[in-house]
């Protein structure tokens, strides 16, 4: 019940449909279970007439045969009504299921968008996708359909009990007393299987993530000749998934046969006791057939009772199957719930940046992605409006991490970031990011037209503005050669080169023209000739604007107003190119290493 409470908010708006579905399910079940009772009446009627042939001097009852005709008519009406009720129930059940998974998927996707970047970075992308698609489908098929089957089963049991006690209370007690054995077995096996279903779901996410990563980097894998290593890794993961799936499947397959075996023994007991009652012609147990039929327990009663006994035990078998689905679905629901309740990207800021960013100050920053390793170590820097600041240093020294802190994708463990003398935590993140434009080494290409990709960050951008931005980004040449030009649909895997994707990202920045610009290896995928042309465009764009440039190609940052040299997350040198080069320190070593 505690787990079910997690599902309750998602049922909002479907609760009337749920009540209707339960009502029609009950009506369909009653119609279905009334049929054996009426069939038993017919069997007893004909058996009684066969055993007692009317003589001329006898007064025989129902010589016109009205009663069997009436019973057949009632039987036909019940069959039709039951079919209609079942159809309405199935329709409402499907409606509820689709409505709920639509809402769950929407909320889960929103949770991904609202989560802090650090939560997404720390999660397996394949596992996040697994929760959004497969786990939600498991909830729909397992929980919603499973609980519908569970309710149908409970209703069947209650209605069947009513008819069984009406027919013969002795046989009914035998069924009631022996059935709990089946329930205990089912519960024990389901509880044992729960851990296997959880392990199966977890390894499925791992496998999806690995395949996604491998396919995305297939070119690098072939180039490095490590396809065999990746194949071995896949085999290990696949074997792990196979073992968990095998255990879950085997556990599930043991429930049904074990419960069916117990039910077979119950049926055998009913046949023996029922035959004894019929042969002895006794009224023990109270024969429930109305009208003028024999008051004792008759053949029609036993036929009807055996049908009810089968119907009574069948829900327990179905419930045992449902319990497997519920175990799997509860595991999926727990994974979805954990993702939905990921920490949100809390924004405590209330102030907007008025005008432009005039000053950006970082004071004594400390930060690490894990508690045991600092990536930024006592970092302090002030950037003023119009300055072009370059960050250089070996890989892993904290340059990109610093950008993550400035954009407030992550928060520093200690220290303070100020914007226009205001504490960054007091400023709305949206306001900060509206003033900043970024081009990173990683390209951001979305499925859509070239026009949509360039205009992505500026609502209402015109075609002429997009074309001008592409021209300034040196991207118009290759765009015009595309099949439909700016209307060509592209994606991250559409066949564009890394350099062409990068140029589209640069064009996006040119269109926005923010007052603070961050370039993190923005020209790393672009050829030298295009880079030279782009640098002229960047110089024009950066006039009067503040910029923070991360570059390994030191030739691109020699004209910077300030070069900050980083190592192990701290500043070890800073100054202009000429000042640092004359010092003959670490920057001098880096520069000489590139140009000798």
Please, could you describe this protein's structure?
Strands 6-9-10-3-11-12 form a 6-stranded mixed β-sheet. The chain folds into 2 domains: 322 residues, ABC transporter type 1, transmembrane domain (ABC transporter transmembrane region fold, Up-down Bundle), CATH 1.20.1560.10; 237 residues, 3-Layer(aba) Sandwich (Rossmann fold). It is elongated. It has 17 helices and 12 strands. It is an alpha/beta fold. Helix 15 links the parallel strand 9 and strand 10.
Based on CA atoms alone, the radius of gyration comes out at 37 Å
Report the CATH topology name of the largest domain.
ABC transporter transmembrane region fold
Quick one: CATH superfamily of the largest domain?
A: ABC transporter type 1, transmembrane domain
The first-level CATH class of the largest domain is given as Mainly Alpha
Tell me the β content: 5-15%
Strand order of the largest sheet: 6-9-10-3-11-12
Going by helix content, strand content and strand pairing, the class is: alpha/beta
Integer tally of domains:
2
Summary tags:
alpha/beta, ABC transporter transmembrane region fold, Rossmann fold, 6-stranded mixed beta sheet, 61% helix, 10% strand
In terms of topology, how is this protein built?
Elements: H1 15-51, H2 66-114, H3 117-122, H4 125-167, H5 169-216, H6 218-224, H7 227-279, H8 299-340, E1 359-367, E2 376-384, E3 388-392, H9 399-406, E4 414-419, E5 422-423, H10 429-434, E6 436-439, E7 448-449, H11 450-454, H12 463-472, H13 476-480, E8 489-490, H14 498-512, E9 516-520, H15 528-542, E10 546-550, E11 562-567, E12 570-575, H16 577-583, H17 586-595
Parallel strand pairs: 3-10, 3-11, 6-9, 9-10
Antiparallel strand pairs: 1-2, 1-4, 4-5, 7-8, 11-12
């Amino acid at each position: 019940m505690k787990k079910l409470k997690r599902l309750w908010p998602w049922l909002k708006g479907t609760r009337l449909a749920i009540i209707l579905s339960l009502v029609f399910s009950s009506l369909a079940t009653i119609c279905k279970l009334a049929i054996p009772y009426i069939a038993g009446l017919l069997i007893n009627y004909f058996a009684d007439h066969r055993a007692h042939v009317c003589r001329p001097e006898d007064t025989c009852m129902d010589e016109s045969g009205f009663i069997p005709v009436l019973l057949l008519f009632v039987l036909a009406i019940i069959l039709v009504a039951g079919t209609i009720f079942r159809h309405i129930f199935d329709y409402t059940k499907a409606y509820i299921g689709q409505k709920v998974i639509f809402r769950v998927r929407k909320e889960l996707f929103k949770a991904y968008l609202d989560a802090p970047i650090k939560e997404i970075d720390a999660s397996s992308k394949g596992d996040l996708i697994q929760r959004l698609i497969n786990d939600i489908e498991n909830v729909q098929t397992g929980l919603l359909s499973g609980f519908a089957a569970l309710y149908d089963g409970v209703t069947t049991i209650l209605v069947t009990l009513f008819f069984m006690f009406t027919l013969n209370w002795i046989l009914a007690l035998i069924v009631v007393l022996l059935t709990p054995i089946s329930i205990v077995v089912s519960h024990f096996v389901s509880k044992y299987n729960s851990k296997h279903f959880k392990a199966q779901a977890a390894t499925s996410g791992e496998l999806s993530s690995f395949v996604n990563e491998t396919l995305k980097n297939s070119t690098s894998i072939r180039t490095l000749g490590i396809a065999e290593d990746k194949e071995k890794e896949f085999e290990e993961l696949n074997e792990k998934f196979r073992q968990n799936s095998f255990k879950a499947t085997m556990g599930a397959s043991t429930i049904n046969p074990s419960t069916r075996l117990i039910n077979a023994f119950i049926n055998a007991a009913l046949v023996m006791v029922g035959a004894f009652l019929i042969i002895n012609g006794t009224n023990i147990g109270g024969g429930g057939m109305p009208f003028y039929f024999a008051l004792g327990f008759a053949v029609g009663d036993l036929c009807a009772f055996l049908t009810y006994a089968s119907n009574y035990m069948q829900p327990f078998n179905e419930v045992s199957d449902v319990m497997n689905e519920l175990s799997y679905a509860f595991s999926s629901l727990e994974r979805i719930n954990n993702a939905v309740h990921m920490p949100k990207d809390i924004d405590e800021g209330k102030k907007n940046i008025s005008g432009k960013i005039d000053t950006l100050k970082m004071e004594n920053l400390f930060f690490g992605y894990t508690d045991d390793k600092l990536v930024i170590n006592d970092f302090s820097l002030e950037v003023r409006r119009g300055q072009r600041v370059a960050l250089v240093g070996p890989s892993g020294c904290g340059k990109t991490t610093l950008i993550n802190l400035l954009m407030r994708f992550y928060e520093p463990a200690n220290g303070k970031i100020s914007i226009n003398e205001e504490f960054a935590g007091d400023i709305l993140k949206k306001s900060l990011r509206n003033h900043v434009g970024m081009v990173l080494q990683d390209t951001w290409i979305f499925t859509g037209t070239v026009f949509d990709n360039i205009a992505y960050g500026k609502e209402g951008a015109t075609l002429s503005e997009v074309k001008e931005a592409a021209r300034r980004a040196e991207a118009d040449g290759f765009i015009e050669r595309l099949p439909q030009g700016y209307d060509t649909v592209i994606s991250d895997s559409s066949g564009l080169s890394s350099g062409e994707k990068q140029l589209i990202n640069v064009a996006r920045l040119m269109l926005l023209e923010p007052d603070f610009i961050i370039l993190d290896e923005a020209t790393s995928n672009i050829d030298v000739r295009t880079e030279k042309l782009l640098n002229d465009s960047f110089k024009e764009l950066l006039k009067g604007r503040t910029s923070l440039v991360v570059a390994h190609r030191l030739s691109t940052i020699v004209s910077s107003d300030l070069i900050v040299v980083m190592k192990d997350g701290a500043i070890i040198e800073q100054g202009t190119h000429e000042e640092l080069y004359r010092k003959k320190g670490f920057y001098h070593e880096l520069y000489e290493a590139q140009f000798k």
